[in-house]
Amino acid sequence: MQNNGQLIVVVGPSGSGKDTLLKKVIKKIPNSILVKRYITRKKRY
Question: Residue 34: which residues within 8 A CB-CB, separation 6 or more?
């Protein structure tokens, strides 16, 4: 089985609009997959 595709990584500081951008991209690109992210670092408070 052959699977060709692209991996696009979106990085930026908190509040820069990454989630908004990804939601719009998902609607425009058929067969796209959004991978859920998990924050693994400890909170600093």
Answer: 22, 26
